[in-house]
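Exercise 7. Given the components listed, write out the predicted structure of the assembled complex. Treat all entries as one system.
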Amino acid sequence: MKDIQQPGASNTVAIVGAGLVGAGWAVVYARAGLKVKVFDANPEITRKSIPLIEGQLAGLHRHGLIEEDPATILSRITTASTLAEAVEGVTYVQESVLERVDVKRQLMIDLDAIASPDLIVGSSTSGIPGSAFALGLSLSPRILIVHPVNPPYLVPVVELVPSPETSAATVEFAETLMKAVGQTVVHVRKEVEGFVLNRLQAVLLREAWALVDEGVASCEDIDKTVRDGLGWRWSFMGPFETIDLNAPGGVADYAVRLGPLYQRIAASRQHEQPWDETLIKQVETQRREHLEHGDLESRRAWRDERLMAFAAARRSTHPEG
Amino acid sequence: MKDIQQPGASNTVAIVGAGLVGAGWAVVYARAGLKVKVFDANPEITRKSIPLIEGQLAGLHRHGLIEEDPATILSRITTASTLAEAVEGVTYVQESVLERVDVKRQLMIDLDAIASPDLIVGSSTSGIPGSAFALGLSLSPRILIVHPVNPPYLVPVVELVPSPETSAATVEFAETLMKAVGQTVVHVRKEVEGFVLNRLQAVLLREAWALVDEGVASCEDIDKTVRDGLGWRWSFMGPFETIDLNAPGGVADYAVRLGPLYQRIAASRQHEQPWDETLIKQVETQRREHLEHGDLESRRAWRDERLMAFAAARRSTHPEG
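Answer.
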């Protein structure tokens, strides 16, 4: 894309909060042709974001996931020394500051004081609803949640969650922008804890931990069940299309056949108890048998390589997205 | 593999029940070099299984997923006219008959009457525990659940579930056999409804349907959340490795940070209500907007092509399995 499809829009976005998530967002916007200004309240983090972005672009280049030269993309990214400098002349701010209500609220107050009347603000929060930090300001109709998966330049899904004060035009703008930069838009139409993505992850993880707790299966065997079983179809169809194709008459037929079984399974699981110390210790011990603590960091690099290989393979075998 | 690693084992297995699942199993065993005898109580189904298998082998060949000529693999597969003929001289029976307790029980009684003292029987049931149909026979120590995902020649995971009467040697035999033919073994150590795979699927689906019911998100947006988000990491890591890498200190650190959020999310969902007619109708309507009823069949062919492409891509990018 070359410009944001909005009257009066500039082709520059601001990244506020320049840790891992913010740096990943900078790559998303810059590779789509937009100019990006990066700012973090901590100048050291602002400074370090550039080599971080360079590394991410190098990985994308190595896997054939960007067509342009990494240096060309990097040249669209500059740093800013103050919040005012970062948002000056930009149409959109992607906020990825610390995941704390008070920190996000203060940022919104600061932005409210300096924002142009057109500025739209997307928050990367993975779980705090806008109602907790985005209400009661002039800016409020132009704030919404734009929740990515990490890293956003590899995993395309983005949840758009309006607060009760977010305007429809703001949601529409964010949808246009996200599609233009190649992300997949999911609309979360009510503010629920965990939005959609983390709710789905939460219920699966709760069941997984409970199965370990009861001695039904090991962590490793549960991981195998997903990565060599359920995860295959989910990774290109999602759960509804999967079951729609799994009964002769489609999803309604499936619901009649298997709904009662699923109801019994779900009803048999009480979710009230926390993961206690003994269980956490047990899971930790099992994981450390497969991956030592000192190898976590190198395994994260392995994961990012795999995600890039997955993206490259998916692009060639699944071009419709 | 060229023979089953077991004293006195023949290199022939029998497929009993030759529908979609049975035919898929025949491909798994034959491509691994074993001889396969296919039998269904309905001779018409026995007969039709051969062209079905031919089609599956052609797909695997097209995607570079088998090294041998499909005709060579097919030449290892023969049909049998009676159950006695099918199991004569074989060491292992893969049972994939109708998913009904009475049908499975009758088959076990019939097998018990004719089985050699070494015969081991694996049942493909996706949810009926062995205790419901496999107890109290001479054969009982040699019966276990060997539950595949459909189609088993593409999706490698297999759940091994012993009944209380299954011997440890039987589980060990099945594990050796499954690994030898290239499947991924998961041990389910207690008989729980839905085993591991369908329990994980059940809790995720229950949450997904509830989110549609509450108007939080559409079916299509929930599918996007998984296929363009959660499903990416799950398809090569599984849920435990995913969270182990998602907190600086690993899984225990993650549990302390995010456990309470996940507990609140899971506790906020009541699972007691069935999927009622209105909700089923709503989901059906949404799915049919994306895929007309008459296109279900062609979309299933699309799915199988995608699974093969996924398997081929995974083999090249993820050789360690």
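Discussion: The first strand of chain A starts at residue 12 and ends at 16. Residues 12 and 103 of chain A are 24 Å apart (CA to CA).
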